[in-house]
Amino acid sequence: MNFPFVKEAVNSLFKKPSTERYPFVKKEAPLGYRGRILFKSDKCIGCGMCIRVCAPGAITKSTKKTDDGEEITMNFFMGRCTFCQMCADFCPRGAIELTNEFSMITEDKSNLNVSGTFIKKLPPKQQAGSQTISKQV
């Protein structure tokens, strides 16, 4: 019997492995890497542009009426995200960024959710008698 792989197997026993023992070896993401989403809810205006450009549908928006206005919650599910960066590119306020965090290994799906909540305030109500309409003659 001819076993051509035996010679390679014996030689490999004494070689340094070609892989690294992650996570024991610290690695850094290369420049321009697109990793986990960072959502800045204080910059968001709730326009929904990110939802419209997200092809896999990884972004959802939920709203709830409050006394101050409208409470908006933006949810980003990293399990569906393709990290294309379209949401960040189209955000008019720069509320979405992709970090260089590449390790998203988890056993719990809830760790793949990134969300943020903010209040979109209603415009102030005008008094009934304070409206004046001027006519040009």
Automatic annotation (TrEMBL):
Coiled coil: none
Domain 4Fe-4S ferredoxin-type: residue ranges: 35-64, 70-101
SUPFAM superfamilies: 4Fe-4S ferredoxins (SSF54862)
Key words, A-Z: 4Fe-4S, Iron, Iron-sulfur, Lyase, Metal-binding, Ubiquinone
InterPro entries for this protein: 4Fe4S_Fe-S-bd, 4Fe4S_Fe_S_CS, NADH_quinone_OxRdtase_chainI
One GO location term (cellular component): membrane
Pfam families found in the cross-reference section: Fer4_7
PROSITE patterns: 4FE4S_FER_1, 4FE4S_FER_2
Protein name, UniProt field: Formate hydrogenlyase subunit 6/NADH:ubiquinone oxidoreductase subunit (Chain I)
